[in-house]
Design brief:
- The complex is a heterotrimer of chains A (about 120), B (about 150) and C (about 90).
- Chain A is mainly α and about 120 residues long.
- Chain A is built from four helices and no strands.
- Helices cover about 65% and strands about 0% of the residues of chain A.
- With about 150 residues, chain B is mainly alpha-helical.
- The chains are: A mainly alpha (about 120), B mainly alpha (about 150), C mainly alpha (about 90).
Chain lengths: ~120, ~150, ~90
């Protein structure tokens, strides 16, 4: 059990972060905490993707002044680059909607702005 | 903000700008590229907004100009992708020609900046787009919340 | 009652993640890599750049970058549309 934990530690960290993000999304009612939960969930998915493309003893996939060793997979890193930019854009849009909701209803509780009225 | 913070932010913005442009232009030789360099320069603009207050930054960086820069950079990106339409949509038509057309030797080598084909042009276009877009978004958020200075 | 179903849902998801993370994924350190080995070997003469990740983002997989530029543009337009007329407080 301990050697499973120490052998592939980044995978365990990605699963723990995903659990924390899902717990925040299900059980918390403050709107700002929900936004933070979405950001933690995005970070855990990025960490999981980068872990999938690792070769033991690998170096960065760049040929300028490169040391010896096999290179890690480059396609996975391109996917994570795209995902990070999309997470920033999503976060900005969600925060602007939270600002509008706060100006309109006066509270940051997600149970107060549940029904669409007015 | 106080006089010390404003002066230091003024002097530091030059170094942030130079470093961000270095990361954008050398995107095909060293780690980096368009998205990373654009984020560096946008964080420099955020430093200026915190130091000077958003009412004063609004006079220099009007939102209409930032919107024009962002749209024209996106159009430049699509235009560069369309030129090689004779073969496929995103064809790298500058490899082997005279502009940006050297081919690096196989294996480890000290980097040559005149390589890469059509990749440096796309890097510059995407860097301009990200820089203008993120600066406009942060400026809009700061202006909507009242624009008061933090003492 | 609702609390019970919420906890059940979370526990089922976490068990699926833990079991799937150790059985359905390849062992850590030896990924299956036929396509990536081709890209690493041939990116210096086909795309002509030293940075393999930049060649993948802009040359081998350029469509994904086009989609991402569109998403960024749509998000910035959305932020500037929602937060118009900065500075005026609204009365309900």
């Amino acid at each position: 059990m301990a050697e499973i934990l120490s052998g592939n530690f980044p995978l365990v960290a990605a699963i723990v972060l995903m659990g924390i993000g899902l717990y925040i999304l299900i059980f918390r009612r403050n709107l700002i905490k929900i936004v933070m939960g979405i950001a933690i969930l995005s970070s855990s998915v990025n960490l999981f993707l980068v872990t999938l493309g690792y070769r033991t003893g690998g170096i960065a996939p760049i040929y300028t002044e490169a040391p010896e060793g096999p290179m890690v997979l480059p396609v996975v890193q391109a996917l994570v680059l795209t995902n990070i930019v999309i997470a920033v854009a999503t976060s900005a849009l969600i925060l602007s909607l939270v600002i509008r909701i706060y100006r309109h209803t006066g509270s940051l509780d997600s149970k107060k702005s549940r029904r669409m009225k007015g | 903000m106080s006089k010390i913070v404003r002066t230091v932010a003024n002097q530091l913005m030059l170094f942030v700008l130079v470093f961000g442009l270095y990361v954008i232009v050398h995107g095909h030789v060293t780690p980096g590229g368009g998205f990373q360099g654009g984020a560096v320069i946008a964080s420099g603009v955020v430093m200026l907004i915190v130091a000077f207050g958003s009412g004063q930054i609004k006079k220099s960086l009007r939102e209409r100009r930032l919107s024009v820069v962002e749209s024209s950079a996106a159009l430049l990106f699509i235009l560069v992708a369309f030129i090689g339409i004779g073969t496929v949509f995103f064809y790298n038509f500058l490899v082997g020609s005279r502009i940006f057309g050297d081919i690096p030797p196989t294996g480890t080598n000290p980097g040559n900046i005149w390589t890469g084909g059509v990749i440096p042009l796309m890097n510059v276009a995407v860097g301009l787009k990200v820089m203008a877009g993120l600066s406009a978004a942060v400026l809009a958020l700061a202006l909507f919340s009242g624009g008061e200075e933090i003492e | 009652m609702r609390q019970f179903f919420a906890w059940l849902f979370l526990v089922v998801l976490m068990v699926f993640l833990v079991i799937g993370g150790f059985k359905m994924v390849h062992p850590f350190g030896e990924p299956p890599s036929a396509m990536d080995q081709y890209i690493i070997d041939n990116s210096q003469e086909q795309a002509g750049s030293n940075n393999v990740v930049a060649a993948v983002v802009f040359d081998y997989r350029g469509f994904d970058t086009l989609g991402e530029a569109t998403v960024l543009f749509a998000a910035v337009t959305g932020v500037m549309f929602v937060l118009r007329a900065g500075g005026k407080k609204e009365e309900t």
